[in-house]
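anyone else get weird line breaks when pasting these?? whatever heres mine. first is seq + tokens for prot A
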Amino acid sequence: MADQRERAGLQAAIAAFTTWGLLTVYWKQLGEFDPVELIAWRVASAALIMSVAVTVLRRWAPVLGAFRDAPTRLRLGAAGVLLTVNWMAYVWAVTNDRVLETALGYFLSPLGTMAIGVFVLGEQLTPFRWASIGFAATGVVVLTVSYGRVPWIALVIAGSWSTYGLIKRRVPLAPAESLTAEMLVLLGPALLTIVVASSGAGWPGAEAVWAQADGIDWLLVIGTGAITAFPLTLFAFAAQRVPFTLLGPANYLVPLINFLLGWVVYDESLPWVRAVGFGLVWFALGLVTVEMVRAHRRTVRLRREPATVA
């Protein structure tokens, strides 16, 4: 039963991460709009979709109960803030031709997840993991030299996503209810952002979606709710069933797809120094993955072996 539960979670994680990787193409089509307002529309659309889903499933009781519990309410608020930060950094980078930096961020995310496992969940820091941290840090230094600045977008994406995964693990709600609650937490600020932008009183240099969008644009803007709800629901399902030692490596699908899109499809610059930096991060991930897979296989083997009678 435990193996089936974990297998279902891993399948959901792979589907979620593949979808996230391909979303770069979707957001590229909305590049003329302001990222802040796009995130607001994304939240509003996702809140509507998830509210309808929870109504159909008749699952409002757990959502309302979560809001009545102070610790859960605090975690939902924190998860919402981290999700907003992650989305904002990602969408801004995609619409400003920095897809490779988003790839770096999601390559670093499993190492952030590993660090959380060590320093928050009490997992042991093995020599392999120490080595992986060292190679990753060296890679970031090399990339800083290559870019001529700290790759802050990548670090924000990695830090916010790893921490979001930890908080999701501690929210006692099923996937649909958890995502609905997060979107409801963010709905007020999102609607305010849309109203301010649409009134013409927005921030300098930003033109409201209302003033620019045509028919196809509106379909894409409203569709951000659907493309949000689907992979996030899958991820919430997976986060409660898959050990972090497996969930971390599954993350690699997102940056791999983004890396190929940025380099091959969108023709972003990849000089040799930058390639070396990415290579160091990949090597770090390789070390972690080898150890995680070995440890997981040992655990599965011991679980399946019959207990010996003394």
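and prot B, same format (seq, then tokens)
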Amino acid sequence: MIRFIDRNLVALPTWAEQPLLAGIAAAIGIAVALAVHWFVFRLLRRVARSSSTDSDDIVVKRLARPTRYAFVALGIVLAAREMPVLEAVWSRFSGFVMPLLTGWIAVAVLRAFVEAMILRNDISVEDNHNARRRRTRLAIFSRIGTFLIVFLTVAGMLASIPGVREIGVTLMASAGLAALAVGAAAQPALKALIAGFQMALTEPIAIDDVVIIDGEWGRIEDIRTTYVIVRVWDDRRLVVPSNRFLEDTFQNWTKTSSELLGTVMIYLDHGADIAPIRAEYTRQITAHRLWDKRAQVLQVTDCDNEAIEVRLLMSAKDGPALFDLRCEIRESMLDWIRREKPEALVRRRTLPVAPVELAAGPSVAEAMAGEGKGAVSP
């Protein structure tokens, strides 16, 4: 093909002949590469659609774009073998392009793997503890792996520049001072990166965990390399540094399971009959849709001079269900006591007494005068 084009470009000047040949050869190589890429990925998409899982569809979708540019680079490389001018031009840019394409494909493969694993770990089911743990690890390691790939890609691109490569060799010769300077400057970033590794290994939290931090109740929405996003009950987002979950105390309501115990406190009169109230609570809790049948107890837990404290213990499958269960049981029990046992409601008792009459006493001046006369009398 190149020889055919060369024979038909006899009318061009010498200075324009070689660049035009190089451009035509590059265009032919790119066209052939795009055609091959289209054919290969059309075949892969058909194979992926015929399978029963969505994982291979995700892999094909993620790899389609970076591999298209990789095929284009391959077409230029093959064309450059036939054209010395094109090879000379390509050699100036290959040091940038090849590490970039390699890193891009590596990131695409990593993200495709993570998305495929996320599909296999559904957290919408009721018992989702193991799935949430796996998703948390995938999220953390995905971001750490992406950071390392990008770092190595940029390093490979900069290493292709002769001046930058010489500077790197000089810095490596003085590695002692450079390590101290870089370590001091990058201490926060390194600390956050190490905290991300610790989060993945020790698992103090997981995606969709219910936590209480800084007095706020919420769920773990996302775990990044340096911070964690907590979605609180009113849809606000708390952005919490990762090391807070490693260095400070917080509450995790779903560390081992999502099942929780909760209480409702009711304050009644000292003369209240507890037996029918206990029977009514048992009837209501056993018929409630949110009770998970693990625990239900009514106990008198305290007493003072004004009322007795009755604690209603109950259980539910997770935090939101427990909150709704407590509110509904509190409302229904108070309504039943008001209608059926009004004498059990707290009353403030007062003891009426007869008025006390006080006689008028002497004034202060009179009292002092009387004390003075008594002191000087014989």
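btw re prot B: Residues 171-175 have pLDDT under 50 and may be disordered. The longest strand covers residues 260-268.
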